[in-house]
Amino acid sequence: MNTLSNNNIARAIYLVLKEKTHTELQDINKKVVKFLVRRRLLSKAGDILKRLDKIINQESENIVVKVLSARKLKEESKKKLIFFLKERYKMKEVILTETIDEKLLGGIRVEINDEIIDLTVKNKIKKLQKHLTRKI
Amino acid sequence: MNTNYIVENLKKEIDNFTLEIKAEKVGYVLEVFDGIAKVSGLGDIKSSEMVTFRGGEIGVALNLEEDTVGVIILDDFTKIKEKDEVKTTGRILEVSVGDAIIGRVVNALGLPIDGKGAIKTDKTYPIEKVAPGVITRLFVDQPVATGIKVIDAIIPIGRGQRELIIGDRQTGKTAIAVDTILNQRGQNMICIYVSIGQKDSKLRKIQTRLEKGGAMAYTVIVSAGSSEPAPLLYIAPYTGVSIAEYFMDQGKDVLIIYDDLSKHAVAYREISLLLRRPPGREAYPGDVFYLHSRLLERACRKNKEYGGGSITALPIVETQAGDVTAYIPTNVISITDGQIFLETDLFYKGIRPAVNVGLSVSRVGSNAQIKAMKKVAGTLKLDLAQYRELEAFSQFGSDLDNTTKQQLERGKRAVEVLKQPQYSPMAVERQVTVLYALVKGYMDDIPVDKIKEFEEGLINYTENNAKKFYKEIIETNMWTDTGEAELKKIIEEFKSSFS
Fold first, then answer.
1. A-B interface: how many C-beta pairs under 8 angstroms?
2. pLDDT at A1 over 60
3. Pick from A115, A118, A127: which is nearest to B25 by CB?
4. Would you state the pLDDT for residue A136?
5. Contact state of B21 with A115 under an 8 Å Cβ cutoff
6. How far apart are alpha carbons B257 and B188 in whole angstroms?
7. pLDDT above 90: percentage of residues in chain B
8. CA B233 from chain center: how many Å?
9. The complex's ipTM?
């Protein structure tokens, strides 16, 4: 039975790659691929890479934020949002990925890992609907 | 109702509506099957925390793994799809409680299923709670009158006790429980009947019976039928005991019946195996003992400073072919303060309730027995023990000496007196009278087949004539010499008229 979790492997790869020069990296990368082949883990490579990405972000104090909005965000509000998120999560850098979804009607929805701050009009209307149709 | 009124009302409601902005922890359903969902994300979820699915379905997190969370779904799981959003609530599962719940039939989540409308309550209790500590408890010294002669006399149950009812299928386990509920009328007791994995038709029968006996006025039925998914069967007894705790916290005495815990264990086994927890003996998971011990430990009697209420628990366990050494029976036997053991052989011999007096015990109940009963039951126990020992010899009939013969005859009559039909609980003062007549030898010369007739006649006659004796038992729980003399005289009077 495979007792190594994908997370463990990703962390190990991160520790090996940490603070290495460019030439060293190439060599290590080959070794990592060989290891994955030997242990028949190549099919899990996608998940391992995702986790590695997460670990690298965490270690270098970056935070990946997904922002969904009905319209394109103004630069000013983007700046404000980044400032707020840096403060809230105590991170050095915020990497924003924007998605436009007209179904949200208005407002924004911010997704950070498994945390969601939903400030969309769609959500508000849904909550209002729940409030008005509740049983008394 | 005019349109203006509706618009005004809507406006008011919208004005009152405030939206709380908060960051929510969410996860996504990875897979869903048989009442279980595997969910990703939900980083800081606690064990036993309640989660909500997209359609408002409720779940409880049981397995917290490195990347995923194993959730049991307490609603219809067929509507939940892969990639659905799951939100944490920060609360553990709660059930609404209140005085309005009395007389109702509710499901495992405490919601009414009897079609009598919503239950208006404003309080909720968590379904999982740590049992009351040592400081808050008091020893068991108040009786629970079951109205069943053999139990009240030989295996007495006290308020705050946990007494297991164990036996094969069709031996009258539920009958004892239902009789006990029926007898609680006017005894200052609230009853909760938790039906786990029973047929709905059986539950309906019990409900009708309780209604007919006027017992629904102080009874709550919590039902998780056999058609419901395993997670609901698993939480039903905890829901029942939470309702019981609400009444206990008001200083009331509560009787709770779990019918039955073997099906509860099977439901938990199903959940555990689906959650891929390693199976142990009989494929039950390792924590199946804790499953029942934490439930039954919540039965207790609190002392005055902590409210003074009590929860008496009567768990029922079904055995297979009388095997009490199976896993669940041994577990529950060791958790409870005694057991009432029912046997198929006795049942078919016509000894009903089919209690095996030799194997049944009550470890704490004797302190709770009233004095008068203790006095008559002491000799009765001895009579029965001697009878069982000598029974094997009875086949040799004529070779026995007179004392042995007499003991055998007394034993036969004791067994006959302890027979009792279903749904006919007997008040304690009547029980004392009958048993007094038995142990003092007044029945020795009555033919065995006339014993029932004699018993019925005796009760009617003494109740009308030995009023002093009855009054003493009701008021002081014991007789005085004058009361006893009166009773003796009355019994003799009756006996001479009985042919």
1. 41
2. no
3. A115
4. 63
5. no
6. 17
7. 81
8. 16
9. 0.80
CB atoms B23 and A113 under 8 Å:
no
For residues B98 and B269, what is the distance between their CA atoms, to the nearest angstrom? 32
Q: Are residues B24 and A128, on separate chains, in Cβ contact within 8 Å?
A: no
* Rounded CA separation B144/B437 (Å): 23
Decide if A115 touches B, using CB distance below 8 A.
yes
Residue B323: which of B341, B338, B350, B346 has the closest Cα?
A: B341
Per DSSP, the residues of chain A read -----HHHHHHHHHHHHTT--HHHHHHHHHHHHHHHHHTT-GGGHHHHHHHHHHHHHHHTTEEEEEEEESSPPPHHHHHHHHHHHHHHHT-SEEEEEEEE-GGG-SSEEEEETTEEEE--HHHHHHHHHHHHT---
Of all helices (H) and strands (E), which one includes residue B251?
none
Residue B38 has pLDDT above 90, yes or no: yes
Query: Residue B434: how many CB atoms within 10 A of its CB?
Result: 23
**Cα first-last separation, chain A:** 55
Pairing of strands B310-318, B164-167: parallel
With CB atoms and an 8 Å threshold, state whether A113 touches B43.
yes
**Residue-wise pLDDT tens digits, B302-319:** 999 999 999 999 999 999
CB atoms B23 and A117 under 8 Å: yes
Q: How far apart are CA A18 and CA A33, in angstroms?
A: 17
Contact list, B26 vs chain A (CB under 8 Å): 114-116
The tokens for B394 are 């009875």
Provide the pLDDT for residue B325: 95
Which among B10, B22, B43 has the least Cβ separation from residue A114?
B43
Assess B111–A contact: CB distance below 8 Å, yes or no: no
> Do residues B202 and B376 touch, judged by C-beta distance below 8 A?
no
Task: For residue B278, give the nearest of A43, A7, A1 by alpha carbon.
Answer: A1
Look up the pTM and report it: 0.90
* B294 noted as active-site residue: no
Give dist(CA A114, CA B85) in Å, integer: 11
Do residues B142 and B368 touch, judged by C-beta distance below 8 A?
Answer: yes
What is the rounded distance in angstroms from the CA atom of residue B102 to the CA atom of residue B118? 13
Residues of A in contact with B21 (CB under 8 A): 117, 119
Element (H, E) at B242: helix B230-248
Rounded-to-integer distance, Cα B299 and Cα B133, Å: 11
Burial of B149-188, coded b for 16+ CB within 10 Å and e otherwise, reads bbbbbbbbbbbbbbbbbbbbeebbbbbbbbbbbbbbeeee
**A132 touches B: beta carbon within 8 Å:** yes
Q: Which residue has the higher pLDDT, B395 or B483?
A: B483
Q: How far is A110 from chain B (nearest CA, A)?
A: 9
Q: Does A129 touch chain B (CB under 8 A)?
A: no
Q: Verify whether the Cβ–Cβ distance A7 to B67 is below 8 Å.
A: yes
What's CA B148's distance to the chain center, in Å? 15
**Residue B17 in contact with partner chain A when CB distance is under 8 A:** yes
